[in-house]
Amino acid sequence: MAQSNLAYDLERFEEYRPKIEKSPAKKKTASPTHPVRILFLALLSLAVVSTVLYSRVVISELNQQINEVTEELDVLKSESVRMQSELESKMSLSAVEEAAMSEYGMVKPDNSQVTYVSLDRQNKIEQEDEDAGFISQIIAFCKAVVGQEA
Asked: Where are the domains of the chain?
């Protein structure tokens, strides 16, 4: 068997493309910036920075005020709880009874001071006639007026 070269010559299938030589790129010359433009941009950036700083200061002050008012609210709530418990202790039955005995000289009644009352008749409820309504009163008034004229 004879040796043969089975490799393809791929250069035969390529299209001819002439190589383009790149010329060095021309550098753009920077246009001179106008001093007024630089000044305007500096003032604009200064205004933005100062606005941001001012807003941060305002937010900080408001947060401080909120914290102070919150602390004051907590103190007032605890004072309210204390006063409510003090009021409840003063309004208890034992405190009222003690004040009545010490300040006003009252004493608990003895059995000798208790008097029972007996009623001979039965308890009953008497109900008066209901007041007539507005329209009934008008009708009664008209009847009274007509009765007087006749």
From this structure: 34-109
d(CA 40, CA 51): 16
For the record, the structure tokens of 38 come out as 């630089």
The answer for residues whose C-beta is within 8 angstroms of residue 106's C-beta and 6 or more apart is: 100
As a whole number, the mean pLDDT across the chain is: 83
Q: How many CB atoms lie within 10 A of CB 103?
A: 8
d(CA 47, CA 90): 64
Q: Could you give phi then psi for residue 11, rounded to 5 degrees?
A: -65, -20
> Tokens 């021309």 map to which residue?
26
Q: Across 56-60, 117-121, 135-139, which has the greatest mean pLDDT?
A: 56-60
Task: Compute the half-sphere exposure of residue 93: CA atoms within 13 Å on the CB side of its CA.
Answer: 0
